[in-house]
């Protein structure tokens, strides 16, 4: 500031010399006074500056010491920050290595994963395809970038895809599943199952993530199952048999799960009604068969199969016979039978025939047992099957001794011929009144007449032969006596009496 004033005074003195003398003297005096004042001020300022400098020097020393302490503190903090930075740099390097490995694993996973990973923008265009696209659909993933995802979808599935895509956009973060067909590069159609999730608001994705996998084999299996179910429904509708499934509860009782449609036709009740009134412990089963059936089925304690024949009462009150073949299902976890599957076949006609045959057999057995002639039946192997009471009396062996054994009354030397005779009878060659000599239990011989005929089952197969014996001993004895009497008579009469008949006498009317 003073230096500037001095410069102005020098300029003023130069200008004073150009003034008139009176004014020059006045102005010179003023300039001198001003110059003196400035000198005094400069001197006073230098003194004050020196004083102030001493104080400032002390203050500067204090500031210097404070600055040194501050610098030392800053250096310590800088060292700490440097160490922390070094650690963070090391951790960052390790994290980068882990991230690099993770990215490598992710890329390898995406490269070799059987599923197609796709990212689609909100406009439906593809932003990313994994390498599986080429393996599954035959397209280069890079070539599909920017294309519409829906352009390869089967026309019949496109509407469902659009609705599905719109639902994903409306519900971000909520995954959804869809099945559709997509065109392969070779022109064929591939079944895919896709699980999508809208991640448009996720900064790392910013799109809709679609995970797709081929399900061709599964769809073929499902189609086969549906066809099988269709066949099953048709068969179930036209067959007279019906199947069922019962769940066995923890208390040992059975609860119906389902029954086929034929149940309604055979029983006259809806299958759903089984769920309410049960089966074996209901009015469906004949009272005489119910207890037997319940005990047998409730006694199941392991996995096995079984077959029962019992009577069912239909809605009309008619008694029908069924053959029930069932399978008990064992659960290892629960350690018990948990389910019973079965199939029922109506056998009413067969049962009626069997009952008639049984009655006929019982009548036949009674007739054979009470017949006055000795009767036995032999199988194809010669084993005795029937030995009636008359045979016991005639030959001496009891039924307990004869049944299940070869015929005991055949002489040793005649067995081969006799069994050949019975075999020919079984083949249809009937024997009527054949005279044979057989043994009795006491070792004596007895002459009998033999009648033999084949025994066949319902299918016409030969089971053996039935053999009927008539004692000839008494008849032969009478014949011998008759011959003796005839011989004696011949000895008393003249020989011509055998050739001449006495004349017949005519009886008159009224003669006695």
For the structure shown, list the relevant keywords.
512 residues; alpha+beta
Helix content: 40-55%
Termini separation comes to 211 Å
Sequence stretches where pLDDT stays below 50 over 5 or more residues = 507-512
Summarize the biggest pleated sheet.
Answer: 5 strands, antiparallel
Q: Per the principal axes of the C-alpha atoms, what is the gross shape?
A: rod-shaped
Strand-pairing-aware structural class: alpha+beta
Strand order of the largest sheet: 2-1-5-4-3
Beta-strand portion reads 15-25%
What's the total number of strands? 15
Compute the number of helices.
Answer: 14
Radius of gyration: 63 Å
In words, what does this structure look like?
With 512 residues, this protein is an alpha+beta fold. It has 14 helices and 15 strands. The strands form three sheets. The protein has a five-stranded antiparallel beta sheet, sandwiched between helices. A five-stranded antiparallel beta sheet has the order 7-6-10-9-8. The protein is rod-shaped and about 235 Å long.
Q: How do you describe this structure in short?
A:
The protein has about 500 residues and is an alpha+beta fold.
Map the helices and strands:
Layout: H1 2-16, H2 21-112, E1 116-120, E2 126-129, H3 132-137, H4 141-144, H5 155-170, E3 176-183, E4 189-199, E5 207-214, H6 216-238, E6 242-248, E7 254-259, H7 262-267, H8 274-277, H9 287-298, E8 305-313, E9 319-331, E10 336-346, H10 348-370, E11 374-379, E12 384-387, H11 389-395, H12 399-402, H13 415-426, E13 431-439, E14 445-456, E15 462-471, H14 473-492
Antiparallel strand pairs: 1-2, 1-5, 3-4, 4-5, 6-7, 6-10, 8-9, 9-10, 11-12, 11-15, 13-14, 14-15
């Amino acid at each position: 500031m003073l230096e500037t004033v001095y410069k102005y005074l020098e300029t003023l003195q130069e200008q004073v010399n150009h003034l008139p003398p009176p004014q020059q003297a006045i102005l010179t005096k003023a300039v001198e006074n001003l110059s003196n004042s400035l000198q005094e001020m400069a001197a006073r300022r230098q003194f004050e500056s020196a004083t102030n400098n001493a104080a400032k020097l002390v203050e500067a020393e204090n500031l210097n010491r404070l600055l040194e302490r501050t610098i030392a503190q800053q250096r310590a903090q800088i060292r700490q920050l440097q160490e922390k930075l070094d650690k963070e740099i090391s951790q960052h390097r390790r994290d980068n290595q882990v991230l690099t490995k993770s990215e490598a694993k992710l890329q390898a996973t995406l490269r070799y994963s059987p599923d197609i990973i796709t990212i689609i923008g909100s406009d439906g265009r593809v932003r990313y395809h994994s390498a599986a696209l080429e393996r599954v659909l035959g397209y280069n993933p890079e070539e599909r970038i920017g294309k519409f995802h829906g352009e390869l979808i089967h026309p019949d599935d496109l509407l469902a895809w659009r609705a599905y895509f719109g639902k994903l956009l409306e519900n971000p973060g909520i995954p959804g599943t869809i099945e559709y067909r997509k065109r392969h590069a070779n022109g064929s159609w591939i079944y895919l199952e896709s699980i999508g999730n809208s991640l448009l608001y996720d900064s790392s994705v910013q799109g809709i993530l679609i995970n797709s996998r081929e399900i061709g084999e599964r769809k073929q299996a499902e189609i086969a199952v549906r066809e099988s179910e269709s066949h099953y429904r048709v068969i179930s509708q036209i067959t007279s048999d019906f199947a069922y499934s019962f769940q066995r509860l923890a208390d040992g009782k059975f609860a119906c799960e389902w029954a086929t449609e034929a149940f309604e036709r055979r029983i006259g009740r809806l299958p759903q009604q089984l769920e309410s009134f049960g089966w074996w412990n209901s009015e469906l089963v004949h009272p005489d068969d119910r207890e037997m059936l319940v005990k047998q089925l409730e006694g199941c304690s392991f996995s096995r199969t079984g077959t029962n024949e019992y009577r069912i009462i239909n809605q009309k009150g008619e008694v029908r016979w069924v053959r029930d073949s069932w399978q008990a299902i064992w659960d290892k976890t629960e350690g018990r039978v948990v389910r019973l599957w079965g199939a029922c076949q109506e056998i009413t006609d067969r049962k009626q025939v069997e009952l008639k045959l049984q009655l006929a057999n019982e009548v036949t057995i009674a007739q054979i047992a009470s017949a006055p002639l000795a009767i036995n039946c032999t199988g194809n192997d010669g084993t005795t099957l029937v030995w009636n009471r008359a045979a016991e009396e005639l030959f001496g062996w009891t039924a307990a001794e004869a049944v299940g054994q070869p015929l005991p009354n055949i002489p040793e030397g005649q067995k081969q011929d006799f069994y050949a005779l019975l075999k020919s009878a079984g083949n249809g060659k009937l024997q009527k009144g054949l005279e044979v000599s057989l043994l009795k239990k006491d070792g004596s011989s007895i002459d009998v007449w033999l009648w033999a005929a084949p025994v066949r089952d319902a299918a016409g197969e030969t089971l053996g032969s039935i053999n009927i014996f008539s004692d000839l001993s008494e008849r032969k004895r009478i014949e011998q006596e008759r011959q003796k009497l005839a011989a004696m008579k011949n000895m008393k009469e003249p020989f011509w009496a055998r050739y001449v008949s006495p004349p017949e006498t005519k009886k008159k009317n009224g003669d006695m």
